Amino acid sequence: MDSQPKTHKPVEGHQIVKTQMADIKQIILVTSGKGGVGKSTVAAGLALSLALGGHAVGLLDADIFGPSVPTLFHLTNENRPEVTEINGEQMMQPYVRCEIKIMSIGFFFDEKQPVIWRGPMVSNALKQLINQTNWGVLDYLIVDTPPGTGDVLITLLQQFEIAGAIVVTTPQLVAMADVKKTIGMLRDDNIGTDVIGIVENMSWFTPTNHPDEKYYIFGRGGGQQLSETFNIPLLTQIPVNEELGVNCDEGNLKNMFSDNHIKEAFDALILAVTSR
Prior knowledge:
alpha/beta
């Protein structure tokens, strides 16, 4: 199997040459304008839903300074990934949970240890995580990016062929300014990619024992307003309940789909991604 990345030639008038990973059919970014919107949970839930649907899936935690994926999949106490030689190259073996191949910078640092790196080191680490991980053949590589428009997102958009990006927001209208900047970057003429759509997370709170009740404790209308402003589809609205945070903290992410409302929300997201 050819594990070497291939590159596209630059198109006329476009000087940036992006890498096409030979064995990865689609790389999809999960982005947000600001932190605290549940972006990592959405990225992990998307990867899990795709895997449960029979797709070959990888999940890259590209949030260099605040990796959350190890916690979500109960991998915080694991050793560094094993390194093996493949076709003369040293390749890292991803951890596998729920049929998902997972790689994160969090596997290389103690969770209490800060990562004190400047931009070039961050970009180089990101490229190593992608190019030197033995992903095998994947239908989808889901990338959980840091919030905002910093070095990681720039590197991903400049260096790799990205199939599309999903923008995660919450219902509060006050969060819109930051999200608009992210959408603007994703639509840049030189390094931009297709914006698949918007996911509104924490759309409402529904108690587990009262599934017919909705409490809009985080506001209303943010996702719909973004959709109308930028003519981008609102793919789904994901509610929360009192058990979701516990399941995420304990690494029992699969239990989130025991709530029918949350499962239906992710089913809508999967349909939007797989039907493109």
